[in-house]
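Quick question: what would this complex look like in 3D?
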Amino acid sequence: MIQTLAFYLFASLVIASAVMVIMARNPVHSVLWLILAFFNAAGLMVLVGAEFIAMLLVIVYVGAVAVLFLFVVMMLNIDFAEMRAGFINNVPLGLLIALILLVELIMGVGAWSAGGIALGTPDGSAAQGLGQSNIEAVGALLYGKYVFLFEVAGIILLVAMIGAIVLTHRQRPEGARGHQDIGKQIRRRPQDATVLKNPDVGEGVEL
Amino acid sequence: MTEFFQSLGMSYEWAWFVATVSGVLLIALPLMLAVAMVIYVDRKVLGAIMMRRGPNVVGPFGLLQSFADGLKVFLQETIIPSAANKGIFLLAPIITFTVALAAWAVIPFDAGVVLADINVGLLYILAISSLGVYGVVMSGWASNSKYPFFSAMRAAAQMISYEVSIGFVLVCVVLFAGTFNMSGIVMAQKGHGLGFINGFFVNPLLFPMFVVFFISALAETARAPFDLTEAESELVAGYQTEYSSMSFALFWLGEYANILLMCSLCTLLFMGGWLPPVEWAPLYYVPGIIWFMLKTFFFFFLFSWIWATVPRYRYDQLMRLGWKVFLPMSLVFVALISGYLMATGHFTGASA
């Protein structure tokens, strides 16, 4: 009873906030609705017994990705009139993508109701070994059966990260504006930086 | 507690519901009281270090100062700037406060005294504490004012940076404990040091991580020396500038509840939680919750001590410390610790 209520609560909230993501006029509101959608999706994950995935969803998407979204969107000064002007041009492409997603959804539901591949029962019992916690089950799969693919994915991400750093990193030559030598900054002492002068009346100070 | 309510003749579902609600109240109300007292302690410690008296007028020794402040704030008018984004402006303090309270659900105060004893307790805390940044960012943006906005940008960057190293420190602890469950982590610390000291902090591999965690906790809660988000000399009051009355008070309470949470996390992860400091039978006559509170209070004292002592970091130094010092260091320690545990055959046990 409570599970059913919770499921419909989370599910309807996910759909409602997903609709609001594209309906909201203010992009910042869109991002905030997106966060709500993520959060309710995490709630659905908890309901099917995948608490580890739910926590990862919140940590990774809500805690890091969406913060960066929000960060960028808040900084941009978006001209709404200009944005709406381009709307008509993009309608065919948008409709195409919507159609593809709809077909995929129908095929997915059709395959599931036809009883295709049993990935897991709704209560998650078939997905997990007996007496295994969520984390152990995921870990056993990732580091056992799929270890090669997992490592490959890790290396691809590492390469992407290094690539991004290489592209944006700029070493400022010594003496240039913005150059910093942390060791030098820390070694600096008051006696190196300041002098106490006691000039006579009418005399200047030679620097 | 569910069994108790069931024995009163309720059905299981109702008993569970009533037990959970009363559990929430049993945690939240004393927590609010603790926050009020801890604000008083903070000001007293600060006063003592600055050779002042601190609050001493309201009530005996000024003990009721926080309640007087709370009453004053409660009676103030709520001012909403006309250019503010009203909904988000009002939502932001609520989010900060709610998030600060929600994380306490998995904190064990004593053996078995925990609202939700879930398997992924530590991940839950990580997830909830990563939400804390939204209250700050939303308030900064919705205020539609320059200083709060600067503060929000700083807060977002700062919290993301230090969460990364906190995550790696937690991985180190989890590697040693073999579980994400908070009570399990505490029990794993029993007799960890030479067989009689309770706590991970005595472990030479974990002590550096303990230091990293403590400093990151300071940065995560935006306490001095990392309080750039509300640096008075630069940003007026940071993201709280436009807030007044209860919405301001919610920020205030949430901030201190977060600080207490970080102190109790230090206690649970490294100092052995509700266990007495050493394995000595007479010490077990003291209730576990007393030990837990004493240790948490000790860390809170460190927080105020640091606040009174050190100057504020420069922003680029803050970023450098997070990304160039703590992140590589904690990453190296994750590798070191897992290597050590593999080499000593720690993983052949039941948890493997």
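Answer marked as accepted. The two ends of chain A are 83 Å apart (CA to CA).
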